[in-house]
């Protein structure tokens, strides 16, 4: 089960995604990194809490991470669809994206 | 014998013959030392022929100038000379032929090196380097006069020969050494000197920023890429295309969308690589497009808005469109961290859209000029706190006008890098009597007179104040109020002045204002001395909580120690909360002990950046509460043994005696430490003690 990680939002929602998908966010990657110095708790339990990010926003973030995982390797083809999200979400999504650096 | 004779005869009769006659010719006729040498090192007729062929077209006009020089066996070299105009004909005939030969040698060596494989290149370069030196030596021995002219001739010759060669080459041709470097640079850029004739322009690659040669026309819709980047991007595109072809059905046209995606990259928002935009980009773009529908964004708290502003400024996309997010009739505070893209009109919008603003803080507002400042003064009727950093276009009189209009309302005024000078200062003193916080930092016009205006005017300096007053009187056409001190001032920051601030003036200011100040920052006041500290600051610092004497190098360590020792009696350890003594190179351990005794119970932030010269481990351990044994008798009475338990952040960068064990001791005592800056401390390693909540900034191991 070490190939998945749990991302827990501030309002209690849990999202289980694959580890290599989650590592598209450098912030998450550093949290799960066991090689450098001491390992964080998150790396040992494979659970990351985001108390400042709401469930709806974290869901969109997970969707984006999968989107990136799916289409990043393909380079510039014209088949990459646009990533959609609601306008109401965009501000909080921006803050979450800034924190996760993705 | 006969054969040999015939061969010899034929050899010598050949007009182009004797010299170097090719690698196979073993018959030696009378050669110059130079020609002999050339043969030795292997420069042969072949290379010279090739070069001649290249230079033939360009300098046809110069043909015939070099003819008739030199002896028979030198005609070989003379023939090559015909392409190059030589100013030194006549008596220097033979010598210049040798010089030309030397030039040829250099050219050929360049070609040799250029065409050489990169793997072999290094060894060739080495031999070329040594042989070049030999050449120079030989040429020098041949004609002392000519040697000085060789560099210049070489440049001219090459310039004429190369025709449309690059300017860089011509410039770098003036010396043999520059030649080499120019060649290496050209080689790296993918140039071949022999193909330089085709011409082209030096461009800079969009992706890797290296310079490269662009031949022919540049397609405007295409990106400017050096050959390496173009190859790698095409390779990735081909791979991607191959993958998509395998995975999906083949679509009809891929050309048009590809160009669209490439055009988007010019935006700057997409990554330069042919990849996905980041989530941050997507969000910002969506927000920017729909800024007018701010209501649809829902309820945003002030902190979220502030965070949003930070993010948008970090991404350098704060401009006229995104500005709308942060303005509104109900906003009381406008804080923008990067106003570089806001034009004057955009800044003026702040007045129109948020007239009720009370706090205005604009950083990097270089486009803010006097007109906009006037608009702020007139339009923002409730403005109480102003912070403008980088408004360098605003001049002295504009500030004076601003103070006249808005001064009485101001509670806090902070300005950096602006044209703030004596006139403005006088206006400030006159009009801003309610000012509680003042910061004028890094302003080039802020001189000692300005500083003096903070203190009560002496009769002899009254003359100096007349000038600004006269200016003000002209503007006000009325009476100028007499000088009154800033009675409410609690925080004074005059850090890093660009002009010299004399110690005496500073003394006067401190005597007037010192007793009411909570925050004092005199960083960069290099002139203030022990007298200022002991006679000026010490008696007038009862309420001082934050002090910065960074870069005040004229204060001796004894004076500092005495200052803190004197203060310790009155403060009883409840002294300063923030102290900065960065770059006070004279600091010693005794000062550290005194500091700890003075402020042990209150010190939250300590800055000892670069205080390396006289400080040792014992000084740092004072923070942890260790004292010298000699002072044991005092220890029982005072509270020094506690160290500084409330210390939250400490800057020990470049204090080389900081080590893991010192940090361990400090951490034992300072339970609340959250940040330790340790740039340039090689003894603080990855094994430094750490705990949750503590972060080391600038450890050497962290960057590797």
Automatic annotation (TrEMBL), chain A:
Pfam short name (any one): Skp1_POZ
Domain SKP1 component POZ: 4-69
Source taxon at top rank: Eukaryota
Electron transport as UniProt keyword: no
Signal peptide interval: none
InterPro entries: ELC1, SKP1-like, SKP1/BTB/POZ_sf, Skp1_comp_POZ
Protein keywords: Nucleus
Subcellular location: Nucleus
Main localization (coarse): nucleus
GO biological process terms on file: ubiquitin-dependent protein catabolic process
Any one GO cellular component localisation term in the record: nucleus
Family under the similarity heading: Belongs to the SKP1 family.
UniProt name for this protein: Elongin-C
Gene: ELC1
Automatic annotation (TrEMBL), chain B:
Single biological process term from Gene Ontology: SCF-dependent proteasomal ubiquitin-dependent protein catabolic process
Alphabetic keyword roster: DNA-binding
GO cellular component, one term: SCF ubiquitin ligase complex
Location of region: Disordered: 1-200
Record's compositionally biased regions (Acidic residues): 106-115, 173-183
Biased composition regions of type Low complexity, renumbered to the chain: 55-64, 93-103, 135-148
Keyword DNA-binding: yes
Xref: InterPro entries: Leu-rich_rpt_Cys-con_subtyp (IPR006553), LRR_dom_sf (IPR032675)
GO molecular function: DNA binding
Protein name: UV-damaged DNA-binding protein rad7
